[in-house]
Design goal:
- The protein has helices spanning 2-23, 47-58, 70-84, 99-112, 139-161, 195-216, 240-243, 247-258, 265-268, 270-277, 304-317, 339-342, 359-381, 415-436, 460-463, 467-478, 485-488, 490-497, 524-537, and strands at residues 38-42, 62-67, 89-93, 118-121, 165-170, 222-228, 287-290, 293-294, 385-390, 442-448, 507-510, 513-514.
- It has 542 residues and is an alpha/beta fold.
- The strands form 2 sheets. It has an 8-stranded mixed β-sheet, with helices on both faces. It has a 4-stranded mixed β-sheet with strand order 9-10-11-12, with helices on both faces.
- Helix 2 (47-58) runs parallel beside helix 3 (70-84).
């Protein structure tokens, strides 16, 4: 009998050990360091988030704990500091059930942080009663998806600026219970509510969001990952007994049973850590992971049309479609409004735009600068994409470059010099675009079309009255040397479509080939200075 009991005990203990080892499978073995990197983890005051923060802090990262309960966050921060020796742990208040709180948090981050290398959307709520967020969203979808969607979108430019960077969304195996996908007609459960299905659909939304991020950020250096951490011993299930009152009686028994099958928070954090740091994932994006390995999703999670629809619905729900950019009007002398159509003007009198800019610099550079910047997110979203700026060989006539102390020619004005400087500005803008958009899939090119028979020179006789008498003779002489508009368009077309230029950016072209610029046009410091001045001039720094 004693032998039997001993054998049975040994089998039970051995089985338990094997079970715990099985549950603990999937350990992040990467030794990657994160020195100089910044990480944000939502819900980092407890459970998986706290252990993820501890691991990434141990790798040298600056870790920002984004938490609703600042008191608990402080205790978590103290734990992380004490266990890693890393004092660069920051606490910021974030309530994902409030879009106002999300916006305030993002505002603080954008004001205080110069980079964001890893965003881990870890916080969540599970199987709660039919509660609503501050904005009237069903609580689980509102917190688990809409809050994180807005947070990610508001921080996206900073994340892209910090590329290569990563976004990790904590989903769950529970997404499988949303067999029919998301009910877009009743996304906030106004008709009927079931806590488990609501949770499952919010976790399905996390996978859809991850896939759409991967698609829309392709070529930017930003990658995204969805994670199932496993069944983990955390506070996530604290609302289950409120949603299902019978659990008030069963919970003690359930907890005594489930702990055998649950991972510890440290074990549950491994896949999040893996997706945040593992070197083998740097070229992978949009996939779903469990136990530090890629895993299969449900059939519903593979619905690309639903993922795209959720993105569009989310944009509206969180109010990102409210603000429409307004394009300023660049006014000219009344008889010259047709220049707006071509967006170029050459050697005009000392006119000013509606905003007080010298007309040629205002139209040829500042107008195009603002237009490009307002459309840049759409251009990046469409990558591989191209930006072509029409410059001119006249840029070489600007000895001394651009006078940044008198960029609007208030002191003295020469029509030819003003035109030359505006064309030099086109080249500077092209070079700075190439530098700042490196790795996004957007390329830029400056073009000299040649001397072309167009209306571009129609203002010369106003700027130089002597041309009123000479223009007929000049026109009869110049036509021999001028290209037709079709011929003049060839280099613009070449830069827009030629496959050999797909990996080239920032260069200057004439006659469908790369050509040299003036020495002034190679001044990288002047190009950067013009960018900074342009941002202020067109009001993008407000």
């Amino acid at each position: 009998m004693i032998t039997f009991l001993f054998t049975l005990s040994a089998i039970c203990i051995g089985g338990y050990v094997l079970l715990r080892l099985y549950l603990a499978r999937g350990v992040c073995t990467s030794q990657a360091r994160l020195d100089g990197k910044t990480v944000i983890i939502t819900g980092a005051n407890t459970g998986i988030g706290k252990e993820t923060a501890r691991d990434l802090a141990a790798r040298g990262a600056r870790v920002i704990l984004a938490c609703r309960d600042v008191g608990k966050a402080q205790k978590a921060a103290d734990y992380v500091k004490e266990s890693t020796g890393n004092e660069n742990i920051i606490i910021r208040k974030l309530d994902l059930a409030s879009l106002a709180s999300v916006r305030q948090f993002a505002k603080e981050i954008l004001e205080e942080e110069s980079r964001l290398d890893i965003l881990i959307n870890n916080a969540g709520i599970m199987m709660c009663p039919q509660w609503e967020t501050e904005d009237g969203f069903e609580m689980q979808m509102g917190t688990n998806h809409f809050g994180h969607f807005l947070l990610t979108m508001l921080l996206l430019d900073l994340i892209k600026k910090s590329a290569p960077s990563r976004i990790i969304n904590l989903s769950s195996l529970g997404h499988n219970f949303a067999k029919d996908g998301i009910d877009f007609e009743d996304i906030h459960y106004k008709k009927s509510y079931e806590p488990t299905i609501a949770y499952a659909r919010s976790k399905l939304a996390n996978i859809y969001f991850t896939k759409e991020l991967a698609k829309r950020l392709k070529g930017t250096g930003v990658t995204s990952y969805a994670v199932h951490p496993g069944a983990v011993e955390t506070e996530l299930g604290r609302n289950v007994s409120s949603a299902y009152p019978i659990f008030s009686f069963l919970m003690p028994l359930v907890q005594r049973t489930l702990w055998i099958w649950e991972k510890t928070p440290l074990q549950g954090a491994q896949t999040s850590i893996y997706c945040a740091v593992d070197e083998n994932l740097k070229e992978v994006s949009g996939q779903y992971y469990s136990d530090c390995a890629e895993a299969a999703t449900s059939k519903a999670a593979q619905d690309d049309a639903a993922a795209e629809r959720l993105w569009d619905v989310s944009v509206k729900m969180v109010g990102l479609d409210d603000k429409k950019p307004e394009f300023p009007k660049f006014a000219m002398a009344p008889s010259h409004y047709d220049v707006i159509a071509t967006l170029r003007i050459m050697m005009c009198p000392q006119w000013e735009t509606e905003d007080g800019f010298e007309m040629q610099m205002g139209t040829n550079h500042f107008g195009h600068f603002l237009l490009t910047m307002l459309l840049l997110d759409l251009i990046k979203k469409s990558a591989p994409s191209r930006i072509i700026n029409l410059s001119s060989s006249a840029h070489a006539s600007t000895a001394g470059g651009i006078d940044f102390e008198d960029v609007h020619f208030k002191k003295s004005y020469s029509p030819a010099s003003a035109y030359g400087r505006s064309k030099l500005a086109n080249i500077y803008f092209t070079k700075e675009l190439a530098k700042r958009l490196k790795g996004t899939g957007v390329t830029s090119y400056a073009v000299h079309p040649g001397a072309v028979e167009t209306e571009l020179g129609r203002n010369m006789s106003s700027a130089y009255p002597i041309f009123s008498f000479l223009m007929p003779l000049v026109q009869r002489t110049l036509w021999i040397w001028e290209k037709t508009p079709v011929q003049g368009a060839q280099t613009s077309i070449y830069c827009a479509v030629d496959e050999s230029l797909s990996e080239v950016s920032g260069q200057y072209y004439s006659d469908c080939r790369e050509t040299t610029t003036s020495e002034e046009a190679k001044d990288a410091a002047a190009a950067e200075q013009l960018w900074d001045i342009s941002v202020k001039m067109v009001g993008l720094d407000e």
